[in-house]
Amino acid sequence: MARALSQVYTIIRGSVGGLTYTANQFHQIVVRARTAPVNPHTPHQTGMRSAFSSASEKWKRMSEIQRAGWNLYAPSCIYSGPTGVYTVPGRSLFMAGYSLATYLDLRSLVTNTPVLTQPSQSGFAILGDVIATDPSAPSVVGFDVNVTNPNLENLGIIANISLGFDPSRNFYKGPWDGFKTQGVNVSSEAAGIVQFTGLTEGLKYFFRIKGVIVEGPHRTTTEYFGSYIAVDTTP
């Protein structure tokens, strides 16, 4: 996606050729590649939409003090993008954390009770070391991802995986195989393992890891992207 401050246009919307012009809360003009909408209506997509709808409704019902707390917290979470660093509003951070906690619970990936509580400390939750290794289980084809939680609270992890690719491929950012999405609850200052099995030996699989404090306040971690070549542990 490209963003620009134009000296020619002050407002432009719609698509021209392969480009789509829109806007967001950060810029009057945002330019991105035109893409066809993807709407497969999978159970996983429906679950995430339900989680976002719930988060939106909860924000509306919050007290002014709770919303003010999230807005106070928001500037402490600094994102980095191709055009520099930026922050997002408190509502966006609440929606991200609450919806992820809700989605993990709805799919029974991590058991938790989503709450509205605003953070009392600054910054993102911390995602510790993420290390992919050969499978620890016998007679499987896949790999393990070891995740460390350095936080003082329990961390719910969502792990997504791609389809298999030729090992020469080096970059991938989605879409992800929703049927192989996994979750794990990693206790405070401990480590957890995500096991991806049922893969094809010798193919490279990309994975994405993201965490959220499960007991609340639901601070999220930044995303981690990695890859590993599936290994067969059959004797």
Please, could you describe this protein's structure?
It is a single chain. This protein has 3 helices and 14 strands. With 235 residues, it is an alpha+beta fold. Helix 1 (43-61) crosses helix 3 (90-106) and helix 2 (64-73) packs across helix 3 (90-106). The model has no long low-confidence stretch (mean pLDDT 88).
Kindly list the characteristics that best describe this protein.
single chain; 235 residues; alpha+beta; Immunoglobulin-like; 3 domains; 3 helices; 14 strands; globular
Overall mean pLDDT = 88
Relative helix content: 10-25%
The fraction of residues in strands falls at 25-35%
Q: Going across the biggest sheet, name each strand in turn.
A: 1-4-3-2
Q: State the assembly state of the protein chains.
A: single chain
Uncertain ranges? none
Radius of gyration: 20 Å
The geometry reads as globular
Looking at the structure, the CATH topology of the largest domain is Immunoglobulin-like
> What structural class do helix, strand and pairing data support?
alpha+beta
How many domains, as an integer?
3
User: What is the CATH architecture term of the largest domain?
Assistant: Sandwich
User: Biggest sheet: strands, sense, closure?
Assistant: 4 strands, antiparallel
Q: Report, as a whole number of angstroms, the end-to-end distance.
A: 47 Å
